[in-house]
Amino acid sequence: MKLETKAIHVGEEPNLQAGGSGDVVKPIHLATTFARKVVEQPTGGYEYIRSGNPTRLGLEVRLASLENARYGLAFASGLAAETTLFLSLLKSGDHVVAFDDLYGGSRRLMNKVFQSKFKITVSFVDARDSRQVAASIQENTRLVWLETPTNPLLKLCDIEEISGIAHQHQIPVVVDNTFMSPYFQQPLQLGADIVMHSSTKYLNGHSDSLGGALMLNDDELYEKIKFTQNSAGGVLSPFDSFLVMRGIKTLGVRMRQHARNAVTIAEFLENNSRVKRVLYPGLKSHPQYKLACKQMSGFGGMLSFELKGDLKTAKKFVESTRFFALAESLGGVESLIELPALMTHASVPEPERRKIGLAETLIRISVGIEHVDDLLEDLEGAFKKIR
Predict the structure, then answer these.
(1) CA pair distance 346, 104, nearest whole angstrom
(2) How confident is the model over 33-86, as pLDDT tens digits?
(3) 251-385 sits in which CATH class?
(4) Is 222 a catalytic residue?
(5) Is 2 one of the annotated active-site residues of the chain?
(6) SS3 for 65-104, per residue?
(7) What is the pLDDT of residue 361?
(8) 179-217, pLDDT tens digit by residue?
(9) What is the pLDDT of residue 349?
(10) What are phi and psi of 143, to 5 degrees?
(11) Is 277 a catalytic residue?
(12) What does pTM read for this prediction?
């Protein structure tokens, strides 16, 4: 099956057996516990909602199919997925190599929780240069953590090359694939071991469900993570599982429109005299455009651009749009705009922001699927406000 077909059918096949209801849409199973006839035999394998739920299982099967993985796991948030992964694979004294440009919440989790409280050290490196990843691997390195493209600077790293380096040391590689979604990028096919998503974003696609996901093939890694998922309890609720399953059905059509709109807007911004630079992998001006073409089948709906001027100018701009809602998050059908330095990445210390190139006037936009002419007019109106 192609991805668009998987997104609609996998995990949601109607039960046409005797006694089955034939539901075309997966029911929302709200029961927190499941009765049984025999002490040792749970009915259908279900015991308690944290350990397993029919609606969540349907979603997890679908999640796995999207990334061509054997296993999928659904969590209460993207950070819950990350936390469960860290608790499953790492212990005090271990070391992680991570891209230096990450979602602010991921950096906060690594720095403020696992480094400060659990003594798990993290080396943040510019993974655009695979040699820096190789040079940072230590005897106690147990994980390589990547985002590509990164949030918010849209930097790319070579998943295949870095996976090869890590595997020489028997180190698993995790790729946060939230920005591209499985529609435009397949990290497992490029050698990564685990794919992570904030399903809040493109997978759900409608800004009404908080969730996270992990997809992988390795039996041993899966058993470790599944055990922690049940033990720590950061699972996705049945209702949110239903919402994500519903959202995934339109993933293909949404991602195509996100990308069409984004490339038009990126070209518009690149030709605007008030813009210092535009960061979008689909532009030939992007320093890693060739790598984007190599490991992605499209360029997504996320872009950032740096305004000429100061922080006051940037604040005025993002406060002047109509259709671009001034809000954090991304990946919904509606367009969003934000200032990373003061919003999504405010938890990253200013010296670190400067080090990775995150300027005060950097604006990140999540391009929605509205008519692109309305979005262009909206941005043009904001430019007029800062003249």
Answers:
(1) 7
(2) 999 999 988 888 899 999 999 999 999 999 999 999 999 999 999 999 999 999
(3) alpha beta
(4) no
(5) no
(6) HHCCCCEEEEECCHHHHHHHHHHHHCCCCCEEEEECCCCH
(7) 95
(8) 999 999 999 999 999 999 999 999 999 999 999 999 999
(9) 84
(10) -160, 145
(11) no
(12) 0.95
Residue 96 pLDDT > 90, yes or no? yes
Of the candidates 100, 101, 176, 240, the residue annotated as catalytic is: 176
Six-digit token string for 214:
């992990």
**Cβ contacts of residue 53 below 8 Å, gap of 6+?**
29, 46, 235, 238, 241
> Which of 13-27, 157-171, 250-264 is predicted least confidently?
13-27
Which of 179, 115, 117, 106 has its CA nearest to residue 145? Answer: 106
Q: Which CATH number fits domain 3-248: 3.40.630.30, 3.40.640.10, 3.30.930.10, 3.20.20.190?
A: 3.40.640.10
Identify the residue with better confidence: 141 or 341: 141
How many CB atoms are located within 10 Å of the residue 295 CB?
21
Indicate the length of the chain as a whole number: 387
Domain boundaries, given as residue ranges, for the chain? 3-248, 251-385
Catalytic residue among 50, 70, 224, 260: 50
Angle among Cα 376, 268, 367 to the nearest 5 degrees reads: 55
Number of H helices, E strands in the chain: 15, 12
What sign does the CA torsion over 351, 352, 353, 354 have? positive
Residue pair 232/88 in contact (Cβ under 8 Å)? The answer is: no
* Active-site position among 56, 142, 201, 254: 201
Query: Which residue of the set 46, 62, 101, 103 is catalytic?
Result: 103
Q: Is the preceding peptide bond at 149 cis, omega within 30 degrees of 0? A: yes
Instruction: Return all residues near 301 (Cβ < 8 A) that are at least 6 apart.
Output: 202, 255, 258, 259, 261, 262, 331, 366, 367, 368
* Residue 178 reports pLDDT greater than 90: yes
| Distance from C-alpha of 370 to C-alpha of 376, rounded to nearest angstrom | 10
Please confirm, yes or no, whether 176 is among the known catalytic residues. Answer: yes
Are the C-beta atoms of 204 and 211 separated by less than 8 Å?
yes
Average pLDDT of every residue of the chain: 96
Residue 14 has pLDDT above 90, yes or no: no
